Amino acid sequence: MSIGEYLPPEIKKASVVSKLQRGDFLFQRNTPAIGVYEVLEGRVSMSRLDPVGRDVILFVATPGETLAEATIFGGNYHCNAVALTQATVRLYPQPLLLQEYEQNQKFAIAYTRMLARQLVNARARIEQRNMQSARDRLRHFLSLNMDPERLSVKVTGTLKELAGELGLTHESLYRALARMEEEGEIYRQNNEIMVRPPAGMSSGSKEEY
Predict the structure, then answer these.
(1) Which intervals of the chain form a coiled coil (predicted)?
(2) Other CB atoms within 10 Å distance of the CB of residue 34
């Protein structure tokens, strides 16, 4: 559910829509937070520099997804947000969001649920980053994002962007994909990674008890 679906008309009216070119900063780390952003078009990444200066992608927001949800309570932005493509975003001002959170129980519950989902996703990314093997990280990504009927994952950006999300160099990701294809574990079709079911099982099959 998009944040815009449960916001009152007053906040929607006060929101500000802006356009970004590829490579533009939406906001930068440690700058004062002015509100929460929703991506309307394009893709926007949230990233930080690791100790050796590499840009580590924490999350890529696509249309309908939000950025910097925790800043509803004020403070600074904790990472950089950069447009990966031409993008259109909507800013919901922080003071109005916080006022609504404090006064509207239905909105507060919906927003807290969204924050809880973000926490679950963050824990999954931490678990993923603790894996040493590029193939294990890729398998973890596939298991979390796979369509259970098609046994596939649609890659919305480039493989280089996916490598950044997994904390890998793009060379490591390409090698892992190639090795898994050679061994018959996966195959690629357009922008999808298809997982081959184990022998004796078909896509979408269910065990009978």
Answers:
(1) none
(2) 16
pLDDT at 24: 97
Whole-angstrom Cα distance, residue 48 to residue 46?
7
What residues contact 110, with CB distance under 8 A and at least 6 apart?
A: 1, 6
Q: Look up tokens 């099959």; give the residue.
A: 205
CATH number of the domain at 74, please: 2.60.120.10
82 domain-assigned: yes
CATH number at residue 160: 1.10.10.10
From residue 65, give the alpha-carbon distance in Å to each of 3, 117, 138, 185, 191.
Answer: 8, 12, 23, 31, 20
Q: Which residue has the tokens 């922008």?
A: 191
Which long-range contacts does 142-148 make (Cβ < 8 Å, 24+ apart)?
Answer: 142/186, 142/193, 142/195, 146/195, 148/204
- Mean pLDDT per 10-residue segment, the chain (209 residues): 78 94 95 95 88 78 90 92 96 94 91 86 76 87 84 85 82 91 90 79 45
Residues 49 and 113 in one domain: yes
Can you give the pTM of this predicted structure? 0.68
How confident is the model at residue 37, as a pLDDT? 96
